[in-house]
Write a structure and sequence with these properties.
It holds the Pfam family HD. Belongs to the dGTPase family. Type 2 subfamily. One of its GO terms (molecular function) is dGTPase activity. There is one protein chain. By secondary structure, the protein is mainly alpha-helical. It starts with 39 loop residues before the first helix and ends in an 8-residue tail after the last helix. Helix content is 58%, strand content 0%.
């Protein structure tokens, strides 16, 4: 019995002409036979979910470390929320939902333990060897470090998913070949030598909705977690007109509502308004650009899925509030200092004696490498750690470990 792949519904309606088409994908680095029951983008999404890198996200910090409480977001819960928003945007714009979801699910694979603090510390340690970039690390994970398949390293994802991973925040090179945000990370350049991801162009619209979904998700859930922690109050939120309006709306409709439900009603409205804003802006941009293919989207010379001018200002105000009230709060800064010390200490310990990386499968190979290659392997090992593993590793190697409380 044979299966007609094109007759399968895949659970959603017709794609627009500018959507990425899984039936005409640019393919994979290593050729594989087609699946009779899943599109190539579905297969990518499924491979991402089944990785060890995906599972490790549940014990990696988003803002508050695991010891702060069970109800705070982790990298995993953040990733799931981003994927949900990305899929909603993709459906509204008639895109390929599986590709949008796959890019959203993989976008944080390269993050270190302890959030951006760990990334900053690892970047500083690796500075003499090219530094550290979490986006480039995500690419290394899915093209090299995941070791699940007999015929290749990595996941052998489609060109479109890898492109979205690398370029979801926009082109990495200007038309004259300069880095749009400084030098392009070497792992990305190295990979493009064998599988060109065209890093001077924009990404597909599926990748663009994954990127804006990331902003929507963390703007909302960092406020939620900030209220839960006490670093934010409803009075503080009143300083932002957009949030003040949402709170007035909830108070008018539900007078005397308890704080936890009040918070949820604000957050759900925030997500809805931001999603609707992106849909409206994207539809207007599509009417102007009139792309006839996914490649037309890449060549449009502009972002299509983005906020309106007013919502972009709100986004800026929310981020400024979060930095002032949470990310740079003295309590958080003290914890960040301890987390940075853990990463720096571990990096130096492993550089001095790679055999201390007991569970690292390249440990026997590392001993004979030069410092640059050894440092990159140590960086891979550290970046893959969860918060809990990094703390326990530090306790095993050092007499005193910072208290991250």
């Amino acid at each position: 019995m044979t299966i007609d792949r094109h007759a399968l519904g895949f659970g959603y309606g017709e794609r627009a002409v500018y959507a990425a088409d899984p039936w005409t994908t640019r393919g994979r680095l290593y050729a594989e036979s087609d699946s009779p029951t899943r599109s190539d983008f579905q297969r990518d999404r499924d491979r991402i979910v089944h990785t060890t890198a995906f599972r490790r996200l549940k014990h990696k910090t988003q803002v508050f470390i695991a010891q702060d409480g069970d109800h705070y977001r982790t990298r995993l819960t953040h990733t799931i929320e981003v994927a949900q928003v990305a899929r909603a945007l993709a459906r509204a714009l008639k895109l390929d939902e599986d590709l949008a979801e796959g890019v959203a699910l993989v976008h944080d694979f390269g993050h270190t333990p302890f959030g951006h603090t760990g990334e900053d510390a690892l970047h500083e340690a690796l500075q003499p060897y090219g530094g550290f970039d979490h986006n480039a690390q995500s690419l290394r994970i899915v093209t090299k470090l995941e070791r699940r398949y007999a015929e290749f390293d990595g996941l052998n994802l489609t060109w479109e998913t890898l492109e979205g991973l690398v370029k979801h925040n926009g082109p990495l090179l200007t038309p004259d070949g300069k880095g749009t945000h400084g030098p392009v990370a070497q792992p990305i350049l190295d990979y493009c030598e064998i599988h060109d991801l065209e890093i001077a162009s924009y990404a597909s619209l599926e990748a663009q909705v994954a990127a804006i979904a990331d902003d929507i998700a963390y703007n909302t859930h960092d406020i939620d977690d900030g209220l839960r922690s006490g670093y934010l109050t409803f009075e503080v939120l009143e300083d932002i007109p957009f949030l003040a309006g949402l709170m007035a709306e909830v108070r008018d409709r539900y007078p005397g509502l308890e704080a936890s439900r009040f918070t949820h009603e604000i957050m759900r409205r925030q997500i809805t308004r931001m999603v609707e804003d992106v849909i409206s802006v994207s539809q207007a941009a599509l009417a102007e650009v009139r792309p006839e293919s996914a490649q037309d989207v890449r060549n449009a010379g502009r972002v299509i899925a983005t906020f309106s001018k007013d919502m972009a200002e709100t986004d800026k105000q929310i981020k400024a509030m979060l930095f002032k009230r949470i990310y740079r709060h003295p309590d958080i800064m003290r914890i960040r200092a301890g987390a940075a010390q853990i990463v720096a200490d571990l990096f130096q310990a492993y550089m001095n004696d790679p055999r201390q990386m007991q569970s690292h499968y390249w440990v026997d190979h590392i001993a004979g490498l030069g410092d640059a290659a050894k440092a990159r392997h140590v960086g891979d090992y550290l970046a893959g750690m969860t918060d809990t593993y990094a703390i326990s590793a530090h306790k095993r190697l050092f007499d005193q470990t910072p208290d991250l409380r």
